[in-house]
Amino acid sequence: MGLPHYQHYINGKWCPPSNNDFIESINPYTAKPWCLIPRGNANDMNQAIEAAHLAFTQGEWPKMNATARGALLRKLGDIVSQHAEHLAQIEVTDNGKLIAEMSAQLHYLPQWLYYYAGLADKIEGQVLPIDKADMFNFTLYEPLGVIGAITPWNSPLLLMIWKLAPALAAGNTFVLKPSEFTSASAFEFAKLVEQAGFPPGVFNVVSGTGQEVGDTLTAHPLVAKIAFTGGTQTGKHIYQQAATHLKKVSLELGGKSPNIVFKEAHLENAAKGVISGIFAATGQTCIAGSRLLVEKSIHDEFVEKVVAIAKTAKMGNPLSYETQVGPVTTKPQYEKILSYLDIAKAEGAKCVLGGSKATRPECGDGWFIEPTIFTSVNNNMRIAQEEVFGPVLSVISFEDEEEAVYLANNVIYGLAAGLWTQNMQRALNLSKRLQAGTVWVNTYRTLSFMSPFGGYKQSGIGRESGQEAIYQYLQPKCVWISTATEVPNPFIMRLK
Questions:
Q1: Which of 60, 132, 210, 431 could form a disulfide with 214 if both were Cys (CB 3.0 to 4.6 A apart)?
Q2: What is the CA radius of gyration of the chain?
Q3: Where on the tree of life does the source sit, at the highest rank (predicted)?
């Protein structure tokens, strides 16, 4: 019996890839293929974009008012809620993240749909008190058009919904290119969109590689905006392509986030926060607290606490609720992380935990790496400056607050930062000084549909979630209506 296989979802129909080619999707726990996804090409992507453009300009969707769009999103949220456990199982099989996390994530995911369903008909323009007595002036917010979304392999549906919910609430149509490593859940989600009753062409999914379908999406003239989550280098490439047609972009990119621990912190809680920041999700998260900055006077004591907790981590089958550290999602990423372990050792970092692939019996043939902690790290080392995207923690000590801020900000990234202190004056002051889009104080890796998320510096452009996100998918229009009985001098711009 062959592997289950998926088809593209284009214009409300399931379509085989035009070249009849498929990609094996590998279960990272077994290192074996478990399903087939379509290997799309430019022709497939062009069809999806044209369908989305047609749906935006004609038919039922553009005639639908904002309240009706909200009702559809709310219905979709209910359907997703009913299928959350199934979607979680699919994602764990496809990307190896823990079922404990993915189940919680998928059950929480409908909140984005509900939030933007409610926001859809709350977007209001303004009547402006214009400085010309015979003019009536007001603003409107209108959708952009076709949104092209490109999502990564670490949290496929969550990071897709951050884009989809505000985009559809604003009245746009949507073409999704999921990661070729983890596309299965996107096709399962498309079944739910179909069940909810969205008009054909409003939501489309084409899978394949970046070169074969991603570049077509980012360069196509009918695509109004690209929303991307992924690595910084890929983000730069997308930004360059989007510039060809002056497309709007939102880019949520890499990070090298600091978790800063001061001596007055509640050290047991801080140690748990550090563990959460780097070993949860096997470190495969853009917000990973991969740099531990710890005050020198408590360095040894605190590192001992972190190592002690990390040593207890249970590795194994990500579909077991007992597992705490799962496999790396892709083989290329697995090999990349292993190479960084060698780089760190060559640079002089001291490995106090892990530092190699995992050979525990419970890890089987999967792509597992032991939770790893390096001390004696200099902030100029590659292990401290470059995104590893794995369960690898670099420990850097600091003397005082000024040095902590300097070290925290002295990277090209600025996605997130953690701060552990019982001194609230310090917490407030440093929250302003840290160059990061999110600052967590006495917590880490906490998210909400109500709170905007995005990066400073090379961690990205734009924001997702919260009210800010929907305006990333709208454009303002200004309308002037003259009430004058006579047109003044037509050869002069009207300034008075």
A1: 210
A2: 24
A3: Bacteria
Q: Which domain holds residue 332?
A: 258-441
Measured CA to CA, the distance from residue 379 to residue 260 in angstroms comes to 14
Sort strands 372-375 and 203-205 into parallel, antiparallel or unpaired.
unpaired
Q: Are 324 and 315 in contact (CB under 8 A)?
A: yes
Spatial separation of the C-alpha atoms in residues 237 and 243, rounded to whole Å = 10
Measured CA to CA, the distance from residue 118 to residue 120 in angstroms comes to 6
Is residue 487 assigned to a domain? no
Q: Identify the residue whose tokens are 């369908």.
A: 51
Q: Copy the structure tokens of residue 205.
A: 């999914």
Give the pLDDT score at 488: 86
Catalytic residues: 252
- Tens of pLDDT, residue by residue over 272-294, are 999 999 999 999 999 999 999 99
List of E strands, 335-404: 350-353, 372-375, 392-398
Map tokens 């044209």 to a residue.
50
CA dihedral 382, 387, 390, 392 (to 10 degrees): 40
Instruction: Please tell me whether residues 386 and 467 are part of one structural domain.
Output: no
* Whether residue 93 is found in the same domain as residue 162: yes
**Would you state the structure tokens that stand for residue 196, as one six-digit string?**
């909810």
Do the Cβ atoms of 354 and 338 come closer than 8 Å?
A: no
How far is 46 from 8, CA to CA, in rounded Å?
12
- pLDDT score for 496: 81
pLDDT in tens, 401-433: 999 999 999 999 999 999 999 999 999 999 999
Helix (H, G, I), strand (E, B) or coil at 330: coil
